[in-house]
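Protocol step 4 of 6.
Sequence for Large ribosomal subunit protein uL23 (Thermaerobacter marianensis) entered exactly as in the expression construct, tag removed. Do not edit the line below.
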Amino acid sequence: MITDPRDIILRPVITEKSMQQLAENKYTFLVHPKANKTMIKRAVEEIFKVRVRKVNTVKVRGKLRRVGRYAGYQPDAKKAIVTLAEGHRIKEFFEDVS
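Step 5 output, structure tokens:
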């Protein structure tokens, strides 16, 4: 069982789409594949000291990658799109963007 919040939230996802969602107060994180929405909500609230309004999760299948004649797959991953309550912001990773 995953208990430490820093084991649940692995890293932020910094992409063009996730940066556009900051205007809607939505933050995207790569999370542990076995973490559920309740665990993700508690972890974000504990780590960043904010109030979470909603959590959406997405399972991402690993892509096929080739190097010459050798082929392999990237690992599967799970993303969480976290919507914060009005007036709350996360500045640790996203401060220079919005």
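Step 6, annotate. The domain at 5-84 is CATH 3.30.70.330 (Alpha-Beta Plaits).
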